[in-house]
Amino acid sequence: MIDNYYLSQKALKHGIDIIGIVNRELLREFSEVVRNNVGNLKPAFFGGKMAQRLNAEKLLEENKGIISFGVSYASSLTAPDNKDSRVSIAKSAYGIDYHVVLKKYAESLMGEISATYPCRYEIHADTGIFLDRVAAYCAGIGFYGKNNFIINEKYGSYIFLGCILTDLPLDSSLSPHDQKCGDCADCLKACPGKAYSQGNLCHERCISYLTQKGKNPPFSRSIYGCDICQEVCPFNRDIPRNIHSEFAETAENAYPKAEDILKMGREGFEEKYGKSSMAWRGYDTIRANCEGVITAGRRKSEE
Question: What pTM did the predictor assign?
Answer without folding.
Answer: 0.90
